[in-house]
Design goal:
About 0% of the residues lie in helices and about 45% in strands. By secondary structure, it is an all-beta fold. It has 2 domains: about 60 residues; about 80 residues, Sandwich (Immunoglobulin-like), CATH 2.60.40. Strand 8 and strand 9 form a beta hairpin. The relative contact order is 0.15.
Length: about 190
């Protein structure tokens, strides 16, 4: 269940405290920022809940809090995204100095190409947005491969991760017209 009322208080440069009242103290909470999973499962065993979150510095953001009873599965965000710019995620490799991401489009027969190099970070899990929008008209299969590269330029072995990209259908067109004789407005969704 989506929580209707949350309180967001600044805590630092890019930190906020998010507080809300849960309907049931046994509920499990999940938090999303701009439609992306941010934290969960959160089990406080009390109705009054709060959590500190890191938020983006580069503009506005939207926070969703979902409370569920008896489910360890994360809910989907209420924000719908086209499937053309996925999140690429992998676990940290201790010996890596950077990570190299490769990309292939399955159904066009393209040769695998280097997409981007990402410097190694101390985080246990690395997540990045795909740096460009994928071709998704009518649906298309893509694959990504992340290699860790050590100080001697040795690349690790990894598995290929497929991703199906598809554009959202175009939004309906909304038109308004006025009858010049009666002055009545007509609304149409095409």
């Amino acid at each position: 269940m989506l929580v209707d009322h949350i309180l967001v208080r600044p805590q630092g440069l890019n930190q906020v405290v998010v507080s809300w009242t849960c309907d049931d103290e046994n509920a499990i909470s999940w938090i999303f920022i701009n439609g992306r999973f941010a934290f969960g499962p959160f089990m406080a065993e009390t109705k009054e809940r709060s959590i500190e979150l890191t938020v983006p510095l580069d503009g506005t953001y939207k926070i969703d809090v979902h409370d569920f009873l008896g489910s360890d599965e994360p809910p989907a965000s209420i924000e719908q995204h086209p499937l053309v710019q996925p999140v690429i995620a992998w676990n940290k490799v201790e010996a890596a100095t950077f990570y190299r991401i490769y990309h292939t489009i399955f159904d066009t027969g393209t040769i695998e190409s280097k997409l981007i190099d990402i410097p190694a970070t101390p985080m246990d899990r690395i997540e990045i947005d795909c740096p460009h929008q994928l071709e998704g008209k009518g649906g298309r299969w893509h694959s990504f491969r992340v290699e860790s590269v050590d100080q001697f330029s040795n690349e690790s072995l990894s598995e290929v991760i497929p991703h199906f990209a598809v554009d959202l259908p175009p939004p309906p067109e909304f038109t308004i017209s006025r009858d010049t004789e009666t002055g009545l407005l007509s609304f149409r969704i095409l």
